[in-house]
Write a structure and sequence with these properties.
- The structure is a homodimer.
- With about 250 residues, the first copy, chain A, is of the alpha+beta class.
- Chain A folds into two domains: about 70 residues, Arc Repressor Mutant, subunit A (Orthogonal Bundle), CATH 1.10.10; about 150 residues, Chorismate lyase-like (Chorismate lyase), CATH 3.40.1410.10.
- Helix content of chain A is about 30%, strand content about 35%.
- Chain A has a six-stranded antiparallel β-sheet with strand order 4-5-6-9-8-7.
- In chain A, helix 2 packs across helix 3.
- Chain A is elongated and about 70 Å long.
- Strand 7 of chain A pairs antiparallel with strand 10 of chain B.
- The first copy, chain A, binds a DNA duplex (30 and 30 nucleotides) through helix 3.
DNA sequence: CATTTTAACTTCTATATACAAGTTTATAAC
DNA sequence: GTTATAAACTTGTATATAGAAGTTAAAATG
């Protein structure tokens, strides 16, 4: 019967069997041997064809499903998933690239000030309107070119030692890469397209009215209390997001 | 010894044991029982504490790692991962929402025309500059409000039957949700912040110079030949992307 | 005291097995 | 011919087991 093993699994390789089989199947899909909508061989047949145990095949199928390459329907089979734009994701690590090469990147602390929360800040941070917050403005430059403007309101609480650590100019980097920051539990993010206002354009050495991304963030602690509200602003000509859909290569 | 089972697994539940255990562990992390950087109990101890097999625990740990909640280091242990902005992902299915309620959404075909490829189009589609391509302009409106403007250049090849299907006004929806479209294998996506030009503002019933997202796409077939180059443009006040990082709830 | 070796512990891969649950197809019954 | 039944096949869950590979800390050795 049609055992479609186009490649074998090298048991002497350091690459695990499940990774090899996943690669083989994805390659076959990429080559058009299995087209979108087609049914992949059943797990039992894959076991026999590639001489691996059912659990290993199971793992491979799960990987393909999680990667969005296939969909599994109980009792029917596993089918190659057609390309769908809605499944595309773009990663924020494009921003992280700013901090990766520490040599060419400089974080400049423009201002730290204690102010009274305005209406919007108070509402989003779940505090009263007259309560005091720490206002921070930072500018991230790369090779001398300012590319990220950051404004942030921080809850001002003398009992919590967060503020000092947060004020460190280097703390931004840890926020992206996931260093310490063990006081933060989760955050809400919002990306908008906007245009630079006068002050933003001045700081970023750009033109007022130019296209820009705005990333709003609210971070919460382990008591689900808002700790921070802020925005990253980057001119559109200095930042973009790339991604891809479907089966590569 | 410290067996930290704060909840038990209900074997009579329809929810699989691995899902229950994953939920329990995530809840404990969310509650601060295990803080970022802390080591989770070893797999052996989890087996004993929750009375499940090693493979089930293995599966749960893998889930947590894939979800970005924890990191596993061979020989050392599994540790709670601190929140990192760089791990954030934005899903493009925000765009798909436009097509979900078919009643309120209308796709209008503004123009289809056969033109000669200009320099940029020819380069990105890997064709010669004088070669003919199909140019399509579409407008997607929701509740009468135009919210997406789509321009696309399609390879014109009489031998390939793609064009007719692509020209269907409904084909856009299939592109997002992942319907047929079995001729497309993969695509490159680029998201930029831009401002509306005169023609775009006119079509979108907006103002020239307003902030907007631009999503460029290039799709390839199973021979890795470019088939389509196009752009979605949406005013910034009618589209934004939300997501979150860390451990919810 | 410094170094090496050993033991204990960790995650990681892989197999073999059993049964549950859903779908499809062939068979039997009416 | 239509309907019910049964069989075969599919993915899904769960267990028990074995060993590989990496880390850490204690014990042995010099």
């Amino acid at each position: 019967m049609g055992i479609p093993a186009t490649a074998k699994i090298d048991r002497k390789s350091y690459e695990p069997a499940y990774a090899q089989l996943a690669k083989i199947l994805k390659r076959q899909i990429s080559d058009g041997i299995y087209r979108p909508g087609d049914r992949l061989p059943s797990e039992a047949k894959l076991c026999e064809a590639y001489d691996v145990s059912p659990m290993t095949v199971r793992r491979v199928v799960n990987m393909l499903v999680e990667q969005g390459v296939a969909v599994a329907e109980q009792g029917r089979g596993t089918f190659v998933k057609p390309l769908g734009l809605g499944t595309a994701v773009f990663h924020l690590d494009a921003l992280q690239q700013f901090f990766d090469d520490a040599e060419n990147t400089r974080v400049k602390l423009l201002e730290t000030r204690i102010v009274s929360a305005d209406e919007r800040t108070a509402r989003k941070l779940s505090i009263s309107q007259n309560q005091r917050v720490v206002f921070i403005r930072r500018l991230i430059s790369q090779n001398g070119i300012p590319s990220l403007y950051h404004r942030e309101y921080l809850i001002y609480d003398p009992e919590r030692p967060i503020i000092e650590a947060e004020m460190e100019v280097t703390s931004l980097r840890g926020l992206f890469s996931g260093a310490s920051e063990s006081t933060l539990k989760w955050g809400n993010l919002l990306i908008e397209a906007t245009i630079l206002r006068d002050e933003e354009a001045r700081v970023l050495n750009s033109q007022s009215g130019a296209a820009a991304f705005r990333l709003e963030h609210i971070f919460y602690d382990f008591d689900n209390q808002p700790l921070s509200l802020g925005w990253f602003i980057s001119p559109g000509d200095r930042l973009h997001f790339k991604t891809s859909v479907g089966i590569q290569e």
